[in-house]
Design brief:
TIM Barrel; 5-stranded parallel beta sheet; 4-stranded mixed beta sheet; 11 helices; 20 strands; 26% helix
Length: 432
């Protein structure tokens, strides 16, 4: 691994400096002899991005793969990520210690750190708890049934008590399946207004209350158990209000928002294009404004991609029958620049916090990810050009997924280099 000297780079604080890289760590650039030189004039160095919510789709029980660890982490590196939390809803489900070990074996040659997420319940079925203690013995501290909500309050309480014994995190997919069932795919504003005029009764309706009632319930369970609850993909203003109340009460709760809920709106659903089908659904401008403001003020702690590639055969169906989900690893930072930085809602220190420091802290990997860019720290960072833009082409993605909601949109295309422990995992050909 060659020594590197990155010259004239700007840190999130606005300080201009040189960075040295030797043996996987940041080093005094003056102490390097004959390093490879990288002119980073006009570029910003961010700590490597951390995604708490990635679907890598591997294993897939012998069936066709929508993604692999290799392609998913290549896409992650392209997006500036150096760590991804691999959700448990693979086939088979990651709900035992052996399945955790199997995923870690697959990740040995990955282009980013892969952190296994353990299922909360066996098989994601919502009943019997998974092998939580055994998975924790393999290093797992983050658990989720994402894709399904743990509907039974008693089961969720027992999970929190178990996970709380070792200070872990239970990440909830907040969806009351009694209010938003398997056919639910459109926000209620498509059918009615939030005042209840012509209130939605269609099974395709995904009402805002189906999210916030679970957030409220789990906040109370967090208060009861003292365990850390994390709310996945917050999409409504009402959920933001509940999280803000819970934090004011001192309840141990954190939350994430996805790039697509920051940027894309329910008006796109009029096309019935299944690239825009996601769970929870895209929502209106009031909700988008609420989650943007909540991310800015810290009520929502992190941006997480919910990167969810699918085979086209699973998307090429009538809208209610298509699988929900969209790719996001390669576009997340660009969306955050467009919605949060260019609007003045976040500065670069805020971006570093919401996309690196905070997710590393919540995911309990801050000993090696989300570290300050200082001598002696891991050389885990991404170099970005915040002024660079592109028209997104779904076919240029490093992910196998082509269910790309940003295809054809003009967005920032900032990442020019990603380093993970000093290893270059992505480098744009334009970088000298």
């Amino acid at each position: 691994m060659a020594d590197l000297r990155i010259t004239n780079v700007t840190l999130p604080s606005g300080i201009h400096t040189d960075l040295g890289v030797r043996a996987g760590r940041l080093a005094d650039p003056q102490a390097l002899t004959r390093p490879q030189m990288i002119d980073a004039s006009g570029l910003i160095a961010l700590p490597g991005l951390v995604d708490l919510h990635t679907h890598l789709r591997e294993p897939s029980s012998g069936g066709p793969l929508a993604e692999t660890v290799a392609t998913g982490t290549a896409a992650a590196a392209h997006g500036g990520f150096t760590a991804v939390f691999a959700m448990a809803n693979t086939n088979p489900v990651c709900d035992t210690a052996e399945k955790v070990r199997s995923l870690l074996r697959r990740a040995r040659t990955a282009n980013a750190e892969v952190v296994p997420v353990g299922a909360i319940t066996a098989g994601l079925l919502g009943g019997e708890l998974s092998q939580i203690e055994a998975m924790h013995a393999e290093g797992v501290t983050y658990f989720s049934d994402d894709g399904r909500c743990v509907m039974d309050a008693g089961v969720m309480r027992q999970a929190l008590l178990t996970i709380g014994l070792f200070g872990g995190v239970a990440a909830q997919h907040a969806q009351d399946h009694c209010l938003a069932g398997d056919q639910a795919c459109f926000p209620d504003e498509v059918f009615s207004d939030k005042a209840g005029q012509g209130s939605c009764v269609s099974p395709e309706c995904w009402p805002w209350a189906a999210e916030s009632v679970i957030v409220a319930r789990d906040a109370q369970l967090g208060l009861d158990t003292g365990a850390h609850v994390h709310v996945c993909h917050v999409s409504t203003a009402e959920s933001v209000d509940v999280i803000r109340w819970a934090k004011a009460r001192g309840i141990p709760i954190t939350a994430e928002v996805t790039p697509h809920h920051l940027y894309l709106g329910s008006e796109l659903l009029a096309s019935r294009d299944t690239r825009y089908k996601v769970n929870p659904p895209l929502r209106g401008s009031e909700d988008r404004d609420a989650v943007r403001q909540a991310l800015a003020d810290g009520t929502i702690d992190v941006v997480a991609t919910d990167h969810a590639p699918h085979l086209w055969v699973d998307k090429d169906k009538p809208f209610p029958e298509a699988k929900p989900g969209m790719v996001g690893l390669e576009y997340a930072l660009g969306v955050v620049i467009e919605t949060m930085v260019n609007s003045g809602l976040l500065d670069w220190e805020g971006v570093a916090d919401r996309m690196s420091h905070a997710p590393a802290r919540i995911g309990q990997i801050s000993d090696r990810q989300g570290r300050p860019l200082e001598i002696g720290e891991p050389a885990t960072l991404t170099l970005i050009d915040p002024s660079r833009r592109t028209v997104v082409d779904k076919n240029s993605s490093m992910s196998m997924g082509r269910n790309n909601p940003y295809d054809g949109m003009d967005l920032p295309d900032p990442v020019v280099m990603t380093l993970w422990n000093g290893r270059v995992t992505y480098r744009d050909p334009i970088l000298s």
